[in-house]
Amino acid sequence: MTRHIPIALTIAGSDSGGGAGIQADLKTFGALGVYGASVTTALTAQNTRGVAGVFEVPADFVTAQIDAVFDDLAVDAVKIGMVSRVETVAAIVAGLKRWPAKNIVVDPVMIATSGDRLLSASALDALRGTLIPLARIVTPNLPEAAALLGEPLARTEGDIMGQGERLMKLGAPAVLIKGGHGEGPQSIDYLFSSGGVVQFAAPRIATANTHGTGCSLSSAIAAGLAQDKSLNEAVGLAKDFISAAIAAADRLGVGHGHGPIHHFHALDR
Q1: Is 256 part of a structural domain of the chain?
Q2: Do 14 and 65 meet the contact criterion of CB atoms below 8 Å apart?
Q3: In this structure, are strands 174-177 and 186-193 parallel, antiparallel, or unpaired?
Q4: Rounded CA gap, 258 and 210, in Å?
Q5: DSSP H or E run through 9
Q6: pLDDT tens digits for 134-169?
Q7: Does residue 229 carry a catalytic annotation?
Q8: Catalytic residue at 53?
Q9: Which position among 178, 180, 182, 239 bears the catalytic label?
């Protein structure tokens, strides 16, 4: 059978409200012309106001999903999001090595936009020690970068530079520290790699509707890598996509809390 479309896999938690997690990843893949497959690590009962409950998918069923996808689909990139337990991390690491997977994007999801904690402390060491070294790129926001290093939140560009260099030592060849939680008129993301540091800036948009931004950015990068784009090009295109999706978010009018970004803004007439 002739292949016609790049394929990306998301391994993440489900968001019943549709704005983040697997739902956001699949919307992003589709919006960017990539076929999306999924492995569910957790089911969450959540909406734009917050997370009401989390049901962890057993590790052996995470394994079964990974094997089912890779046994049939030629996966070009993998995005990994919510992995809240040590057993889940171990299942994912074993699966990615078994097949083996390429173009792995790790988004270290620890805290939801609503403030709810999504990653147990016991899983943090496993994330740092076994999953991040498999990644082509890791995409923490400012609080996640600090948590991965056990350091205070970066307040200055110098702080960000130092944390980026230290995060590189965890084993991934590239780290993208996202600046959405920062301040100032520009939202600046910093890409650290062996080639140095590249900044990706966009005007900061005043809106409360940013639910799923981090999930969608990392999945947009995975979509670019699945399409054989260079890392810098994939990050740049992902930044443009997310900026436009945030700018159009208020047009959706979904929910009564932190609403989702507009993944299909390009189709909105």
Answers
A1: yes
A2: no
A3: antiparallel
A4: 6
A5: strand 7-15
A6: 999 999 999 999 989 999 999 999 999 999 999 999
A7: no
A8: no
A9: 178
How many structural domains comprise the chain?
1
179 is catalytic: no
Eight-state DSSP code of residue 76: -
**Residue 79 known to be catalytic:** no
Residue 233 domain-assigned (yes or no): yes
- Active-site residue, from 214, 224, 236, 259: 214
Residue 104 lies in a domain: yes
Residue 115 designated active-site: no
Catalytic one of 13, 212, 236, 259:
212
Say which of 81, 210, 236, 239 is annotated catalytic.
Answer: 210
Which of the residues 88, 182, 213, 259 is marked catalytic?
Answer: 213
Is 129 an annotated catalytic residue? Answer: no
Question: pLDDT per residue over 236-268, tens digit each?
Answer: 999 999 999 999 999 999 999 999 999 999 998
Per the CB < 8 A criterion, the answer to whether 113 and 220 are in contact is no
Start-end of H helices in 99-176: 121-126, 142-149, 157-168
Q: Quote the domain boundaries for residue 124.
A: 7-267
Which residue out of 215, 224, 239, 259 is catalytically annotated?
A: 215
Strands 174-177 and 7-15: unpaired
Cα–Cα nearest to 10, from 114, 117, 87, 83: 83
38 Rama class: left (phi>0) / alpha (psi -120 to 50) / beta: beta
Structure tokens at 81: 């999001």
**Would you say residue 1 lies in a domain?**
no
CATH number for the domain that contains residue 77: 3.40.1190.20
